[in-house]
Automatic annotation (TrEMBL):
Keyword Transmembrane helix among record annotations: yes
The protein's name: Peptidase A24A, prepilin type IV
Lineage summary: Bacteria, Pseudomonadati, Thermodesulfobacteriota, Syntrophobacteria, Syntrophobacterales
Gene source species: Syntrophobacter fumaroxidans (strain DSM 10017 / MPOB)
Assigned keywords, A-Z: Membrane, Transmembrane, Transmembrane helix
Segments traversing the membrane: 6-22, 34-52, 64-85, 97-119, 158-179
GO biological process, one term: signal peptide processing
InterPro entries, per database record: Prepilin_IV_endopep_pep (IPR000045), Prepilin_peptidase/N-MTase (IPR050882)
């Protein structure tokens, strides 16, 4: 798989991920026009180059990529585009690759969240104040009354497509540099 990632497929994946990240940061949307063709390319490439074994490789990655983000989606934490994008990445990288890319994506997401908090420090302080006030009311009321959604406390969104792109490209770069990241995580 590492050899094919050094070729056209890896380059194509990087380009699409960068385009998706930029669009997600601007419009907070990941369109199917990017994710579905990536899945088709991943499935086709691996089926043509590896037969049934290649197709299974790609399907396992697709499924695992979806599983990683389906629960945050069901909880309303992220959008369906993020789930489909991680699945598309999995269809190209396979299950081991998408696992490593997902872990690096989590790190990238954390870093991006901290950056977003710093850039929106006024908003962050309002949220922390509201959370502290709710926590202080807990003993008296027997429950923590949450911060009402909306209003001026509406949270700025984290474009998780940027985190997926960063984590996946970091994984691919490490593999390209000779670090067998997916093997280290699975052995």
């Amino acid at each position: 798989m590492a050899a094919s990632l050094n070729g056209i497929l890896g380059g194509l994946l990087c380009v699409v991920l960068i385009v998706v990240a930029v669009e997600d940061m601007r419009k907070h949307r990941i369109r199917n026009v990017y994710t579905f063709p990536m899945v088709a390319v991943g499935l086709s490439f691996h089926a043509l180059s590896g037969g049934l074994e290649g197709l299974v490789f790609s399907l396992k990655g697709l499924g695992l990529g979806i599983v990683f983000l389906i629960f945050p989606y069901l909880l309303g934490i992220m959008g369906a585009g993020d789930v489909k994008l991680m699945g598309a990445v999995g269809s190209i990288l396979g299950s081991r690759g998408v696992f490593a890319a997902f872990l690096l994506t989590c790190v990238a997401g954390g870093v991006l969240a901290v950056i977003l908090m710093v850039l929106n420090s006024k908003h962050t302080m309002k949220r922390l104040s509201a959370a502290w006030a709710a926590a202080r009311r807990l003993p008296a009321e027997g429950r923590a009354s949450g911060v009402p959604p909306g209003g001026d406390l509406k949270r700025p969104g984290l474009a998780y497509g940027a985190a997926i792109a960063t984590g996946t490209i970091a994984f691919m770069a490490l593999e390209w540099l000779g670090y067998d990241v997916s093997h280290l995580l699975w052995s």
